[in-house]
Amino acid sequence: MSTPSELEPIDQAISRELAADGRCSFTDLAERVGLSVSAVHQRVRRLEQRGVIRGYHAQLNAEVIGLPLTAFISLTPIDPAAPDDYPHRLEHIREIEACYSVAGDESYILLVRVASPHALEDLLRQIREAAKVSTRTTVVLSTPYEGRGPAI
Known about the structure:
Elements: H1 9-20, H2 26-33, H3 37-49, E1 69-77, H4 86-90, E2 96-101, E3 108-114, H5 117-131, E4 133-139
Antiparallel strand pairs: 1-3, 1-4, 2-3
Helix pairs in contact: 2-3
């Protein structure tokens, strides 16, 4: 996979524009970066093939779709000798939006979205049972911004 330092400036510009607006047409993208439509199309295809662009998705408003409670759940193994397969044990739980392997006291931090405090309590029980871990939860009060994409 490529890193920003490996990207040509024009590929960085294309990536930046698509990160801001994944629905941008090739015509608009070409105009924004100063290339022809066919050149932009070829570069986008190469960025996809190289794994720079991993996909396109809609950003949903969690509150509007009934998931107003966001939390970070830190996982710590109960038995430090247990296999480190927590992501596999938890991948079936749809409320987990992201799973980050981290350095520090915890092994992983999960980003979750649920409908209510009761749903969070139930989710914590599911996570503890499935992964055999202890948890520490931080509830998000507000989100000034998220999903900004990398600074390229």
